[in-house]
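#help-structures
NK: newbie question, is this the right format to request a structure? protein is Transmembrane anchored protein
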Amino acid sequence: MATEAEANEGKSMASPLSHTSVVDERPLISSGLVYRLTSGAALLAALTVAISVGGHWLGEKISLAGHTTETKAIAVTIGEDTLHLAANTIRFPSERVDGAAERVDLYLTWPQMQGYSDADRLRFDDISQSSSLIFLQLSQSTMSRDMSGRLEPIYSHLIEGEAYAGPYGLAAHRLRADAGYNGEVLLTAPRAGEPDYVVRCILPASPALATSGDCQRDVKVGKDLSVLYRFSSNQLGDWHSMDTAVQSFVKARLEDAAGAGTPSVGGR
């Protein structure tokens, strides 16, 4: 017969074994922990996707840097003239709104006369390629004559010395130092049945030093619209075709006063 001590010893050994068996049957990872881990993983995945999408969107915005590929028509009224311009031809985002404006700034590829696009992105973003762009500023006329019309009454009195041969068959005229044109040269050329072509330029010492705005000329278009356009002196060889193209571009986008026809928008 077992003694009381032996019986007690058996009890003391049986109890721990029973306790151990209960512990072993519990799951190593509780359902609550699994839920928390799963939720955390899902949240992390969602955050990763959000960062990826947001980063892509932000990257696109940064790369556009104010440009747009949108070609929808913007109706802009300047003085007595209303124009319909493709959004991607308008240089500044703040000017891409319908309504009245004092002026609107455009930029176009030359000679295609197109606005910003993915295909031509580098021509707008890379300063070394900007000489292939022309920049237009449309505003209400403040003078009765455009640049060609000012040759005789104004510029002829500011010219110093004799004319000399300029680039691409143009005649070059030095302007007086006190005229306020800071080293600009006046270039002219006769045109059959039209006033002389006139443009002001800062001619660089070499073509490599040319900028996208070495030359500027203004013309009158529409009822009372002044179109000032700037371009690189490297493009002076196209002076005649460029002048025609600029005027045609603006005229094609003027709203007809009688409401007949639809103005061209273009812009790619």
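mod (FA): yep, format's fine, and the tokens are attached above. The two ends are 108 Å apart (CA to CA).
NK: thank you!
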